[in-house]
C-alpha cells in the first residue's frame, strides 16, 4: 500500500487584503466568495481521498478554533487534531509544532503536506500528479515545495529557480527570489526555469525536524517544548504559551528552505492563486460575455471587465470598465481593478481613524460554535441582531446584568429556557428575557434556527455574559 499523507492546514492568518469582506476577525479562509463553500472548506475537500490522505491537522488560533471545527463538520471532514497557537510566530514555528506532533504520533517517516487554508486550487490530474512527485521526493529525503508555472510576470509572488533534475518530476532548488519588480519578473519568465513560490510543502516529519534543528534550533526547541507541554481542551490541543513564545517570528522559507541543501521544487501547472487581491478573484472567477464577474445582488449596464459582489444592498453599476465594487453589510469598496492589490493602504487609513477602525477589525457577522449572529441595527440603549443556531446546537446557560432581550422566531423551532421554565417557540412566536434572568436558546430541530433578537439596556457589550453552563468549555 502506498504511504498516505498527513495534511497540515495553516488556518490562523488574519488578512484584510480582500476587505471589506475579510477582516482581522473574519479572514478570507472562512468566507464564501463564490459557491457554497469557504476557501477552508474547499481545502478540506481536496484532501478527502482516503487512499491518499490521512485526516488533516489544523493549525489555528484561539479566536478561530470553533470556526475551523464547525466548518469541517459542515464539510463532512474528520480532523486528526487542531493545534492552537497562543501567539503568532509565523510559519516556521507553526510547521515545526505540527511536525513535532506528527513525530510523536506516527514516527519520523510520516509524510506531511503543509498547505494554506485560503488558496484557490483546481484539484485536477495535474494537481495530483504534482502531489505524487512531491511525495516521492519527500520519501527520498527532500524538502519539496510546489513551484507554480507562471502565467504572467506577477510581482505579488516570490519565485523559485529550478536547478538540476532529481528525477520523478522534481528539481533541486537553485535559489529563492523575493517578490520582484516588474522588469525582473519579465526577465525571469523570458529566461525560463522560474516558478511562483506557492507556499505548499511536502516532507517527512523526521527530515523537517532534522533540518529545523540544524538551521533554526531556537524554533525547533520552542516547538518541541510547546507540544510536549500542550494541554488538550475538548478537540483542541493548546500549545504551551511560554515555550511557543520563545520561537523567533520567522517564515519556514527563511528558517529552513533558503538554507538547506535538500530543498526540491516540483514544477506544477495546475491552476493556483493565493487570492491575495480582488483582481486575482476576478481572474479565477466565472465571467460573463462582457468580462464581468458578478456575485450577489447586482445589476450591471454598459459595464465591462469588472468585479461586482454584494452581501447586502442591491448594487447598480453603469458605464464603467475594469472596476471592483464590493459591498459587505456595513461598508462598500470601489476601486480600479488593476489597483486592487493596494487595498491594504485603504485599510491602514481606515484603521488609523478611531471612527472607522472597527470596520477593519470586526465583521457584522460573527461565528460561534453554535452558529453565530449578524448585527442589524445599533442605537442608543438598543440593538437588533439576527441569531442563527445550527441543528442540535445550543447556547450557554447564561444571564446579563445590564440588558433584557426579546427573541422572535423567524425560521425553525427554538427550545427556550427562561428561569425554571422550558418551552418551545415556533415561527412567528416570541419570548421575553428579563434583565438578570437565567436563560438559554437551543435548536432541537433538523434545520437552521433563525431568531431576531432585540436587546435593550444600559450596556449591550458582548462581555456582559455570565455563563453558568457551557458545553463548549467557555468561561
From TrEMBL:
<dbReference type="InterPro" id="IPR054566">
    <property type="entry name" value="ManC/GMP-like_b-helix"/>
</dbReference>
<dbReference type="InterPro" id="IPR006375">
    <property type="entry name" value="Man1P_GuaTrfase/Man6P_Isoase"/>
</dbReference>
<keyword id="KW-0342">GTP-binding</keyword>
<feature type="domain" description="MannoseP isomerase/GMP-like beta-helix">
    <location>
        <begin position="296"/>
        <end position="350"/>
    </location>
</feature>
<dbReference type="InterPro" id="IPR014710">
    <property type="entry name" value="RmlC-like_jellyroll"/>
</dbReference>
<dbReference type="InterPro" id="IPR001538">
    <property type="entry name" value="Man6P_isomerase-2_C"/>
</dbReference>
<dbReference type="InterPro" id="IPR005835">
    <property type="entry name" value="NTP_transferase_dom"/>
</dbReference>
<dbReference type="Pfam" id="PF22640">
    <property type="entry name" value="ManC_GMP_beta-helix"/>
</dbReference>
<dbReference type="GO" id="GO:0004475">
    <property type="term" value="F:mannose-1-phosphate guanylyltransferase (GTP) activity"/>
</dbReference>
<protein>
    <recommendedName>
        <fullName>mannose-1-phosphate guanylyltransferase</fullName>
        <ecNumber>2.7.7.13</ecNumber>
    </recommendedName>
</protein>
<keyword id="KW-0547">Nucleotide-binding</keyword>
<dbReference type="InterPro" id="IPR049577">
    <property type="entry name" value="GMPP_N"/>
</dbReference>
<dbReference type="InterPro" id="IPR029044">
    <property type="entry name" value="Nucleotide-diphossugar_trans"/>
</dbReference>
<dbReference type="Pfam" id="PF00483">
    <property type="entry name" value="NTP_transferase"/>
</dbReference>
<keyword id="KW-0808">Transferase</keyword>
<dbReference type="InterPro" id="IPR011051">
    <property type="entry name" value="RmlC_Cupin_sf"/>
</dbReference>
<feature type="domain" description="Mannose-6-phosphate isomerase type II C-terminal">
    <location>
        <begin position="360"/>
        <end position="469"/>
    </location>
</feature>
<dbReference type="GO" id="GO:0000271">
    <property type="term" value="P:polysaccharide biosynthetic process"/>
</dbReference>
<dbReference type="GO" id="GO:0009298">
    <property type="term" value="P:GDP-mannose biosynthetic process"/>
</dbReference>
<feature type="domain" description="Nucleotidyl transferase">
    <location>
        <begin position="7"/>
        <end position="287"/>
    </location>
</feature>
<dbReference type="GO" id="GO:0005525">
    <property type="term" value="F:GTP binding"/>
</dbReference>
<dbReference type="Pfam" id="PF01050">
    <property type="entry name" value="MannoseP_isomer"/>
</dbReference>
<keyword id="KW-0548">Nucleotidyltransferase</keyword>
<dbReference type="InterPro" id="IPR051161">
    <property type="entry name" value="Mannose-6P_isomerase_type2"/>
</dbReference>
<comment type="similarity">
    <text>Belongs to the mannose-6-phosphate isomerase type 2 family.</text>
</comment>
